[in-house]
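Consider this:
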Amino acid sequence: MKAVYLEAIDAPFTLIDTDRPTAGPGQAIVQVKAAALNRRDVWIQHGKYFLKDYPAILGSDCAGVVTEVGAGADPKWVGQEVLVDPGSNWGDNPRAHSADYKILGMPQAGAFAEFVQVPAENLHHKPPHMSFEEAAALPLAGLTAYRSVFSKCGLQPGEKALVTGAGGGVALFAMQFAIAAGAEVWVTSGDEEKIEKAKALGAAGGINYKLEDWGKQLKAQVGGFDVAIDGAGGEGFVQLVKLAKPGGRIAMYGGTTGMIGKINPAEIFWKQLAIFGSTMGTAQDFAGMMKLVREKEIKPVVDVVFPLEEAEQAMRYMEASKQFGKIVLRVG
């Protein structure tokens, strides 16, 4: 089979011919039709991920058709159109994953290939309203967003939510999920065009975080937020604390802008705020996300689709943060 290969840190992705995997007990083989990129893949390429197990076939997200199952797996999966929960071995504590938690794409071979081996229990039927490219875009980013919005922050209909960094995959899913749940959703972005695109998808409004006083301007417009979902950290996080209503909840799933600046502790304890760290999610979170996207017929936003052999170009496109939505590789 053909697969995208990363030989070492900072090496370019190359297309190789390698052996096709086979299904062991409890496993399934998926013929990949589409696979999506995540920021995780860029970090791994540059050696900035906590695992460093090279050479590697990356790719955490995929959708395709089941071609084979191993002993103990339901044979009815064969021939089914599926997407895959990329996480395994979360553990018994729903509040935090175990030390054995793994994500498809490192250390085990991932989905940037024509075939991938996955646990059969991680298979989910592809929603009929999604293409393979859209379905591949959903798993990791959608799961992270769902856990942040609902499992952590407990967003309720009618509440006001702020999602930072509109354009990124997790941020857009958080926005879409919150809108579907009946919240009034606002966004931030450093790009006015991305704010307008977010509004076209149902956001109530947005503000450019490059403005020096963006927090004050947003507070004057909205008054405050019940929930904030953030993947940036940095100085902007200080504004999220200021913008939070009493009893507000803030979930952080990333830290692309680095260390958080000076926060007045009184703004946290006097307003009784709850701040959550969150990433990925449990099998129950994944099932809840799938239920939501089916019932509300939510379609992932796909920015661009590259062929598998152009994985290196796709990575550089992601690294430049040009995208509004997910970047997908079409396989086959």
